[in-house]
Structures are given as structure tokens and as C-alpha cells.
# Entry
Amino acid sequence: MVKNYSTTLAGRPLKVEIGKMAGLANGSALVSYGETTILATVVASDEPKEGIDFFPLSVNYEEKFYAVGRIPGGYIKREGRPSERAILTSRVIDRPMRPLFPKDYRNDVVITTTVMSVDQDCSPEVTAMIAASLVVDISDIPFAGPVGSVQVGLVDGELIINPTSAQREVSDLALTVSSSSTKVMMIEAGANEVAEDLMFDAIMKAHAVNQEIVQFINEIKADCGKAKKENYTTCTVPADIQNEIIAMIGDERMETAVFTDDKQVRETQLKAIKDEIIEKLTAEGKEEHLAQLGEVFYNFEKKTVRRMILKEHKRPDGRALDEIRPLAADIDLIPRVHGSGMFTRGQTQVLTLTTLGPLADTQTLDGLDELEVSKRYMHHYNFPPYSVGEARSPRAPGRREVGHGALAERALLPVLPSEHEFPYAIRTVSEVLSSNGSTSQASICGSSLSLMAAGVPLKSAVAGISVGLVTGESDEDFVMLTDIQGLEDFFGDMDFKVGGTHKGITAIQMDMKIQGLTPEIIRQAFEQTRKGRLYILDEIMTPAIAAPRTELSEYAPQIIQITINPEKISEVIGPKGKMINKIIDETGVKIDIEDDGRVFICGTDADKTARAIEIIQGIAKDIEAGEVYNGKVVRLMNFGAFVELLPGKEGLVHISQLAHERVEKVEDVVAVGDMIQVKVIEIDKQGRINLSRKVLLEKPKREETVTEEK
# Structure
């Protein structure tokens, strides 16, 4: 039976159709927002996955080019690997939903949201987030939802829910917020240095609107939702086995092993305890307990860390709750690259390298968003295995690496110079050399250092810092930790990452492990990250480099911008690109031409770059009568010589204009290849250029005498 539901969200219709498509999935729906349409499905396996200690949730956001009336590029002409935007959308769907599944649930769950149609005024990402929560809620899969999601823009100082395409283009804020019926579940933001108080107001406004979505989903669930499976196979370790192993370890011994500021020392101490327990269980003939040892050990370690932080305010490395680890900032560590900067935070260390290139190196984006077709600034984040002491070969970047790179990229975009101010494509690569928490925030700091060292005129330096959270039994019982390390991230309830300048926030990413945050926690997180950010900017980064360098590296390409009449662009390019390719071959430069007449010449040799500019300006220049040129003879005819004044522009020196005396043959005066000085004496109605050589020559004395006698 097909059922239809509808409501209004930010002035646009939100519609849901259930029962018509994908009937074999545990839950499915066709969700439309405006004319953006998403087919969402969720499927769960019948049995839990064996040998794992985590919930195997997979979220897929699938972009289809038919949604925007396009055929995919490339030879195969079908969709390939997910775009970066698709990966990031999958992550923002996953993050608010994952904490709402049972902690002991081990069945495979796959959520798929397929973009069927795109209305640029109605975000497919937000539609997919709502659709994903809806299909899980109406399915029989255990889930403590629903979750509502909206975007918030800031246009002319006004907060806008789900801004339109035109509003997003001029917005100072791109905020996405997900909420349950009581708390904020996820925050993702990019901003043009927005103040903390305004950001808080935007989050709370989004949270209020999300309640309307939650209510709408609940109404649908009440009408057609399936009964939840409550008798699924749990993966909880039996209490007697758990208590026996914990007694073998002992509270004091676990506490001693965990609390150290050296990650490797901690891991060595924990391994020694685990090896000893394995020996004891084996000696006592309890080998069957070994299968549960890993999970019991992890849970006991987690419980110990959380108890000490929450009850005694004691962190594993001995720091105060708001204390930042030892920091260091360095620049110019690598020769020949265009810029380098390294940021060290305790045992976390990230080196960022900057490369500058011509605008031709701008990345072309092949996605569904018509607003963003190219990307001039690219930030890539690499997390090699050696950074955590693992002996394995590096692999291609995964979703985590893509997400961290996008966060740092978003944090730095608001302070980058415009294309007009700095006509370069910019790529930064953050290499994580050592990891013990907050590598994404270290990559923000390292990238800011590297860009300034490269001479990129940033409007301001950007720093990033994260705060963690450990909660108790009530909403009021919580402890917040500034600058969390790896252990606090693993065992804590939140990783609240904020990048920004002295003026305000440029990026936020929040990862949750509990069922939401209260307004009080969010406000305190903003205050602690603000204090930490300012400390890093003033005390650590400014002493390393206070302002961007005024000159580029000698190894960076020099890009010079000139402007020509747009009507002359076709002449500079020439038929089938013949002219521009000739200039490139002759000078070795790279040339980018914009439709508005801006021309960017990129080269490493100053003389050849100057020659290319001279040629282009000559081609774009209108030749006028009375001007004098040094031209090259390119063709001889019996009536005169054709002279190339500028590339692609020739004029005729009639035989009578070659010399004062009578010329019998053109070859008697000039030859092909000669450079001669000529003057433009006429441009006729057909645009033909007539030249004279003789008017620039000194008259013979005999002729002058005869003239005087007359």
C-alpha cells in the first residue's frame, strides 16, 4: 500500500512516499524537498557479524548525473568512484545517526541514499540526511531516532534556514545541524570568521527547526512504521567472565598503566598486563575466555580513564582540564618546495607543504552542484601507518582522510586572497608524521604556517583546536577537556573541533558518541576552543612567522596578470589555438585567458615571460596610422613586401615605398627574414595596413639640392 505524507520546511514542500519503491529493504522511502528527490533505503543482516567489536554501519550517498540532466564524462560514461562531496555527505549522515543504534548491536546495517533529481534551491545533502533517518525509523532495525537536519546561512546579517542557491553564493556561513528530539547531534560548519555568540544562535535556531522535522518523522513512524526487533543477538560479554578478568587486572594496576604522557609507554604497559592475563587464563584452562578478553580489557581501560577524568579531574597525561600540550611551530624545513610549515602538539606532528601553480591547475569538479564547478585551493591530508607505529604499507586515502582534508581546507578558505589579488592555484598537503590526537587541527595550524611562508597573502593566520567531553549520569554532570589526545578521543564522548582566527570561527566539525549535546555544553565548548585558539595564534604561531612573506620562493612560478580587450581574445588564441600554442612554444610559459580579458602568464624565466607579454599585448593592440614598428619581412611579391608587425598582423610595403630612389625589384632592397623599420601610413576601409619604409629614411643630398634650386 502506497502512503504519502507532506509538510513545509523553510517555505518549501517536503514530501515522503512510502510503499511504492524498494519493497524488499527493511525500510525505504522516496523523499522530495522542492524538486530534489532522494531514494533512501536501509537493509540489516539477519545475524551479527562475527569477530568484531564495533557496530558495522555503512552509509552511502550516491550521486547520479541524470539528476541534473548530464551524461558523465570520461570514456566509460557512467558514474565512477564517489566524489569528495559524496564522501563528505556520507560522513555527515553517519555521524548523528551512529550513536543512536544500540551499543551491543553487531548486525551489518547499510543505508543508501540515491540522488534522483536535484533542485539547486533545495539541498540534496539535507534531503538525504532527513531521508536516511526516516527509513531507519520506519524499519524494524533498533534505533533511538529520529534525527532532523537543516542548513543555516548568514546573508546580510540574517540567519537563513536552508538557504537557496543564490543565498548560498553570498552567505557568510554554511552550517549543517542535526538534532534528536532533545539534543544537538551533529554540527558541521564553514564560516567567514563568524563570532562564537552568533554561531551559537545559528545552531540553536537550527535545533528549533529540527524539532519540526523530528515531529514529522514521528507522525509517519506512528502511521506506518514497523515494530522494532528487540530480541536481536547481543554481543555483551557475560558478567561473570567480565568480573573475573577485571579482578585479575585490578583497578590500581590499570590506572598506573594508563596514566602517562607517552603513548608508546602506555601501550607497552597495557600489553604487558594483557599478556599476563592470557597466561593466567591459559594456565587455569580457561581458553574460552580469551575470545572476550579484548573487549573486556578495552571496556575496563575506558571505564578507568573516564572515572578518573569525571570524578577526580585527572587526565591520563597529568594535564589540567583546560591545559594544552607542549606546542611548537616551525617553517622552512624542506628545501625547494614553495612553502613548508610544521606544527607539533605533544606527540602529534603534522608537516604541511605548499605548492603554487597557474590557474590552469585549478581542479575541475564533476558533481551535482552547479555553484561549484572548480576548486582553486586544494588541501590534502595523508595519514601514513608509521604515524601511529604500524608496520604496513600506505593505502589510498579513506573517508577519514578526505574528511580531515576538507575540514582544514574549509578552515583556510575564508582567509585566502582572491584570484584577482593572487592569481595562483594553491595546493597544500598535510603529512601526519606522528599521531596522538588532533591531527586535523594540527594540519590547520601547519597549513597556515606553510602558506604564509610561501608568500600567500593570507588575511589572517588560522589555528585549530579541539575539546573533548566525558559525561556522567545526568546532563549537568560533565567534564570538558581542552586539546584531547588520542586516548581521550577514543574513550570520550565528543570531539569538538574548531578552526578560526582572532576575529572568529572559520570551520567546525563535531563527532559524537553519545545521544546529543545540551546548549550549555555547546556554549562552553566554544569558549574553551576560543581561548585555546587565541593562545596558539599569539604564543606559538606568531613567533614562528608573524605575517605572510612579501616575496614568493625563487622556485615558485611567477604569474603576471595583464588585461586585454575581450574582443581580441580570439586573435590571441588564433584558429584552433595556433597562435597561443606558438607563443607557448616560443617562450615556454603557461597562459590562461579569462572571458573578461584577464590574461595570466606563468613562467620561471623573467625574459621569456616578458617576451610572451610583449607578444600578447602586441596582438591585442589596435594598429594605428602613424605608428612605427620593427617588423620582419615574411613574403615578397613583385609589387612589394609583406612585413609582420606583430604576431598574426601583417602590412604591405609597396615597392614605391621601399626607398626614395626607384626600385626595379623588391629583392634588390629586402629579403625574407630581414628586420626593417616601417611606419603605418594608412589603414584602408577593408582593414588592410599600408606601410612605408622610405619615410623613415634620410633623403639623398642630390635630391635635396634639386629641390632647393627649384
